[in-house]
Amino acid sequence: MPQKHTAVVLKSAGGVNMILTFLIATSLHDLMVAASSTLTMIGLFYITIVILKTKFHWLKFFCIGSLILFYYTLFLYGAGNWGQLAVMQKLSFLCFMCLVLTIEYFTNGDDFQPNKSDRAAVTAADR
Questions:
Q1: What backbone phi and psi angles, to 5 degrees, belong to 55?
Q2: Core-most of 2, 16, 85, 108, by most CB within 10 Å?
């Protein structure tokens, strides 16, 4: 990610989320699911905001679709619909994995650089 703040947030949220996800298999399951889901949502939200500023329209829909899919999965968890939740968890994981791999292998750093009008606005705001 080109913005330093975004990269720090994503790395921090991802690192802590790995620990929390591991702890889901303990007696702290419910607490860890809530904390891990929150960090996942923050990370996905940051990725979506960065992607919305690019020219990749298909990737924008993919990010928004991932957010909606994850919201629905969390709804199923809260509602206690365990049968459908089991399927949606696997689908959400597959979707997130495809999203991250797509960003990694089908984009480069230049795709995330602000365009000329954005740079002018940032420069004007710095004055």
A1: -95, 0
A2: 85
- Specify the amino acid at residue 55: K
Is 42 in contact with 9 (CB distance < 8 Å)?
A: yes
Q: Per residue in 5-64, pLDDT tens? A: 888 999 999 999 999 888 988 999 889 999 999 999 999 999 999 999 888 999 999 999
SS (H, E, C) the chain: CCCHHHHHHHHHHHHHHHHHHHHHHCCCHHHHHHHHHHHHHHHHHHHHHHHHCCCCHHHHHHHHHHHHHHHHHHHHHHHCCHHHHHHHHHHHHHHHHHHHHHHHHHCCHHHHCCCHHHHHHHHHHHC
Which CA distances in Å does 104 have to 44, 91, 109? 15, 20, 10
Task: Decide if 111 contacts 54 (C-beta within 8 A).
Answer: yes
Segment 78-91, tens digit of pLDDT: 999 999 999 999 99
Are the C-beta atoms of residues 36 and 21 closer than 8 Å to each other?
Answer: yes
